[in-house]
Amino acid sequence: MRHDFQTRSGRRLGVVSHHHGRRDLVIYDPDDPDSSRDSIALTAEESDALSELLGAPHIVEKLADISSAFAGLVGEQIAILPDSPFAGRPLGDTQARTRTGASIVAVVRDQIVHASPRPDFRFEAGDIVVVVGTPENTASVAALLHSG
């Protein structure tokens, strides 16, 4: 699948997503918009890193916008404390969505936002877990992360 866009300065960029996870960052030739000037192959991990670098400053802002746009939903930030039963364990072990109905949408570690963390993402003490749900659901996630 290919996604293209044009920058404000008129340059065309694109991303080609392959079924096996590789993505190609494409820089189109300014003189021939149908021809690429350069293409950079990225692994799934490199794609994730690039999207985090590009999107990290905006994720928390977007969560605030989502909270105000959807009445009844809130975004909460919950710290993983050193004595949390989930410190050092993968997100999937929490079964947070199934147990509480709230969604863990990001984890902030060392000022880096890990958006949409997968079930194998391992929590560390000091992580800030960003949760979206009702006030009751997000409180349940906080209780879960703090006491199991």
TrEMBL record:
InterPro entries: AAE_transporter (IPR050144), KhtT (IPR026278), KhtT-like_N (IPR058776), RCK_C (IPR006037), RCK_C_sf (IPR036721). One of its GO terms (biological process) is potassium ion transport. One of its GO terms (molecular function) is monoatomic cation transmembrane transporter activity. It holds the Pfam family TrkA_C. Residues 63-147 form the RCK C-terminal domain. It comes from the Bacteria. PANTHER family: K(+)_H(+) ANTIPORTER SUBUNIT KHTT (PTHR30445:SF8). This is RCK C-terminal domain-containing protein.
